[in-house]
């Protein structure tokens, strides 16, 4: 693991490494958190790697059954050493460093994941976060020493996102002082829990708690599911593996069905609520969502997990790009390294800076998490809503960006990137799942939006808000976003970028050499510039805001808009009489994801027919242009115009309703891509720099003079605040 000299290193790689402008060891220390941490990490890694058995046949060449068995074999070997190491540690910081090192080694050890992932990642954290002190004293040593192996079964066939809709019931029977677990419907079957299929003998089960005929909502229970000796499922349970999936092949994700399965009263995890022997329900928590605590913890963890997984993918792709040579640029000269192509750098360098963005943000987020936890120990839950919003938003964005970036890394490796042995497909499969599990991307962004809207209301009322969202109250920033979902999301992206910038500057401000500082600054700038270019359309959008209009008629405009709402077009909504659960198809965000697929299908089929006739012409046209973006726009324009015209030709003989549907698809395709690429469109069409007459400087000045702040020589805030402040009278 240490940078030992290795024989037969590729000459191009050696050359690239010699060009490095900074000391690699210094950067390694920065990432690890200091020299001592680097040394300790290497010591543990070397010890583990020396003592662990390796694969004889590559994991990917085994059958599903063999893969699972091999994963258990390796997990046991790793955990045996892990338990030993953990038992030697006394300080909390050492334990957290060790746990991270074990997690990272485990990552290098398994191409897929260990079946113990949920035990370490959710079972133990839930014991810590949801059990009473006595329960922790009982369960934690058993779990830490792996005397029991647990998992976390919350999701059911019918519900993952909507936790309050879970159907598994835990009904208290005061005669026997037991809870009775039942799965009343097929859709209430627990589904997905990692390690449940074959490995775990204990399980945290989230179920609706009933006592004395009342339902008190979802609560976590700790439940033994298999015999400790025979490992057979206990009577009253149906348990198994859910079947092949994308990635997670060795995680043995499972299902679990209860049939009048009895568990003792103290199986209820009683930190936040308890049920007394006589069945009385006692609420302890000061915040109703404290039972969701493990999810927050894992969302926080995932930011650093994404940094790590992307760092692996981009290291693979950058090394390979240095080695790979392709195309003849000048006759009789060597083919260039693909890393030298600007387009290749465009694909890869953003991933490098993203790794640092995620890692610095993750360090900060973890600190914030611990601070909020410490406050909650003293009964103060004030910061929990913001932590929830922040961890939801950062989890959603980093998992989504990470899987997209890993896919870019794979593209950057051409055909060989498709090979399982490159590890890029496995990295992609693992990270793309993170976008869904522990809270779906869209759903978590909507949670954050909910928090931002509430904060915005406070800002409007002139009330104080927390420092993280204080920018909402500043006039200039208010103009940088609007109240649309994209605007709200963008505002939070701005926070993430801001954290990265301040944290990276803080982390490199002492100790580190100028060379490292320069590189970190470049990476930070790249990240900010990349995203401001990616989101040019958003940045250029006009305000479109009821709150930020020039004339300040905020309340009038809010009322006008409210009256336009379809909900206000009928005095009583039908949900008053009847409240069906919505189909996910009814969510506009879901339709946004799906309908473009239908429209694209028709667009591609129409264009394919047309393309067949004029293949040669199109091929030469697509060759025009020097960057990725122009041909992409060109290709899209071709799809749009062909789809539009060919569809018109072919629908004329169809019935009117079908014609209408097909025309809607054309419109959807055109509008979708207009919105997706509005940055490109606005840059081309509404630019001071790209006008037909080339009067760039004149136009820049004209635009500047139109700027409202230039309409008055001195702003009134000078008299109100700045002057008294300067004169010491404030
Ligand atoms: C290796 C693989 C491992 C994978 C494992 C898994 O996937 S395990 C399975 C992982 N599964 C998932 O991750 C499932 C994802 N689903 C969920 O997390 C939730 O069901 C939900 C958050 C979407 C909605 O929950 P809901 O319907 O109960 O809530 P609501 O929307 O009606 O909002 C009411 C209020 O509650 C607030 N609030 C909400 N959460 C929190 C919180 N944690 N803290 C603090 N506050 C929170 C919210 O802001 C709002 O506040 P306001 O505005 O009234 O002041
Ligand atoms: C690899 C993997 C491992 C997992 N491991 C575990 C585990 O160990 N334990 C466990 O309990 N669970 C586990 N899960 C389950 C996971 O937590 C859920 O799949 C996840 O929370 C999403 O829920 P869902 O599947 O019900 O999706 P749904 O909520 O049904 O989502 C379907 C679509 O509906 C949309 N949608 C849903 N609600 C809304 C809304 N309110 N507004 C707008 N759009 C909405 C979503 O955006 C999505 O596009 C795992 C899942 C995976 C993929």
TrEMBL record:
Alphabetically, which GO biological process terms does the record hold?
A: fatty acid beta-oxidation using acyl-CoA oxidase; lipid homeostasis
Acyl-CoA oxidase C-alpha1 domain location, by residue?
Answer: 292-453
UniProt GO molecular function: acyl-CoA oxidase activity; FAD binding; fatty acid binding
- According to its UniProt record, which residues of this chain constitute the active site? 438 (proton acceptor)
Location(s) in or outside the cell: Peroxisome
Binding residues annotated for FAD, in chain numbering: 155, 194
Q: Where is the Acyl-coenzyme A oxidase N-terminal domain?
A: 23-149
Xref: InterPro entries: ACOX_C_alpha1, Acyl-CoA_ox_N, Acyl-CoA_Oxase/DH_mid-dom_sf, Acyl-CoA_oxidase, Acyl-CoA_oxidase_C, AcylCo_DH-like_C, AcylCoA_DH/ox_N_sf, AcylCoA_DH/oxidase_NM_dom_sf
- Ranges of residues in domain Acyl-CoA oxidase C-terminal: 542-579, 684-727
Pathway annotation: Lipid metabolism; peroxisomal fatty acid beta-oxidation
What is any Pfam family matched here? Answer: ACOX
Keywords for the protein's UniProt record, in alphabetical order: FAD, Fatty acid metabolism, Flavoprotein, Lipid metabolism, Oxidoreductase, Peroxisome
Q: What superkingdom heads the lineage?
A: Eukaryota
Family in the record:
Belongs to the acyl-CoA oxidase family.
Q: Which PANTHER family match?
A: ELECTRON TRANSPORT OXIDOREDUCTASE, PEROXISOMAL ACYL-COENZYME A OXIDASE 1
Q: What protein name does the entry list?
A: Acyl-coenzyme A oxidase
């Amino acid at each position: 693991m240490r940078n030992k000299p290795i024989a037969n290193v590729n000459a191009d790689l050696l050359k690239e490494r010699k060009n490095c402008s900074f000391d690699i060891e210094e950067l390694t220390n920065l990432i690890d958190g200091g020299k001592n941490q680097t040394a300790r990490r290497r010591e543990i890694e070397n010890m583990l790697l020396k003592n662990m058995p390796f694969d004889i046949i590559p994991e990917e060449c085994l059958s599903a059954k063999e893969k699972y068995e091999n994963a258990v074999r390796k997990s046991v070997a790793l955990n045996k050493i892990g338990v030993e190491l953990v038992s030697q540690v006394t300080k909390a910081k050492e334990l957290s460093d060790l746990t991270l090192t074990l997690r990272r080694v485990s990552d290098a050890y398994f191409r897929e994941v260990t079946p113990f992932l949920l035990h370490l990642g959710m079972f133990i954290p839930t014991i810590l976060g949801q059990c009473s002190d006595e329960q922790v004293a009982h369960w934690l040593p058993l779990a830490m020493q792996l005397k029991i192996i647990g998992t976390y079964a919350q999701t059911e066939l019918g519900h993952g996102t909507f936790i309050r809709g879970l159907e598994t019931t835990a009904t208290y029977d005061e005669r026997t002082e037991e809870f009775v677990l039942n799965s009343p419907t097929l859709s209430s079957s627990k589904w997905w829990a990692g390690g449940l299929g074959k490995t775990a003998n204990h399980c945290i089960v989230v179920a609706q708690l009933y006592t004395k005929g009342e339902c008190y909502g979802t609560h976590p229970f700790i439940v033994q599911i298999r015999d400790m000796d025979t490992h057979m499922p206990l009577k009253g349970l149906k348990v198994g593996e859910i079947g092949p999936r994308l990635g997670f092949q060795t995680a043995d994700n499972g299902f679990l069905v209860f049939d009048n399965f009895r568990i003792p009263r103290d199986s209820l995890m009683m930190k936040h609520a308890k049920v007394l022997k006589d069945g009385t329900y006692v609420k302890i928590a000061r915040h109703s969502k404290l039972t969701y605590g493990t999810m927050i913890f894992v969302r926080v963890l995932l930011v650093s997990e994404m940094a790590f997984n992307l760092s692996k993918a981009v290291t693979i792709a950058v090394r390979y790009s240095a080695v790979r040579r392709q195309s003849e640029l000048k006759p009789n000269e060597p083919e260039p390294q693909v890393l030298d192509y600007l387009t290749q750098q465009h694909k890869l360098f953003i991933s490098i800076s993203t790794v640092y963005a995620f890692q610095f943000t993750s360090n900060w987020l973890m600190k914030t998490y611990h601070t909020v936890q410490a406050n909650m120990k003293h009964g103060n839950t004030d910061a929990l809503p913001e932590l929830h919003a922040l961890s939801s938003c950062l989890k959603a964005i980093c998992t989504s960006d990470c899987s997209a970036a890993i896919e870019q890394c794979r593209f950057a490796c051409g055909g060989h990137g498709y090979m399982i042995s490159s590890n890029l497909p496995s990295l992609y499969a693992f990270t793309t799942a993170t976008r869904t599990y522990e809270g779906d991307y869209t759903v978590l962004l909507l949670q954050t939006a909910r928090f931002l809207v509430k904060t915005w209301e406070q800002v409007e009322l002139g009330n104080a808000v927390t420092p993280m969202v204080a920018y909402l109250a500043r006039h200039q920033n208010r103009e940088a976003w609007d109240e649309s979902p994209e605007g709200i999301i963008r505002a939070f992206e701005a926070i993430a970028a801001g954290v990265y910038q301040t944290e990276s500057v803080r982390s490199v401000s002492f100790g580190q050499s100028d060379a490292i500082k320069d590189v970190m600054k470049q990476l930070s700038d790249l990240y900010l510039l990349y995203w401001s270019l990616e989101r040019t359309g958003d940045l250029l959008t006009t305000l479109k805001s009821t709150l930020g209009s020039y004339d300040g008629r905020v309340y009038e405009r809010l009322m006008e808009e409210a009256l336009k709402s379809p909900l206000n077009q009928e005095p009583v909504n039908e949900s008053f009489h009847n409240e069906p659960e919505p189909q996910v198809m009814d969510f506009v965000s879901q339709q946004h994801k799906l309908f473009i697929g239908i429209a694209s299908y028709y667009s591609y089929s129409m264009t394919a027919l047309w393309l067949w006739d004029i293949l040669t012409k199109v091929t030469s046209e697509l060759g025009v242009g020097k960057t990725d973006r122009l041909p992409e726009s060109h290709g899209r324009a071709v799809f749009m115009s062909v789809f539009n015209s060919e569809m018109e030709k072919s629908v004329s003989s169809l019935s009117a309703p079908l014609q209408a549907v097909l025309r809607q698809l054309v419109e959807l395709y055109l509008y979708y891509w207009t919105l997706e690429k509005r940055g490109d469109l606005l840059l081309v069409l509404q630019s001071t720099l790209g006008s037909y007459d080339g009067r760039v400087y004149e136009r820049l000045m004209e635009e500047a003079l139109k700027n409202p702040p230039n309409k008055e020589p001195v702003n009134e805030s000078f008299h109100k605040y700045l002057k008294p402040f300067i004169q010491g009278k404030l």
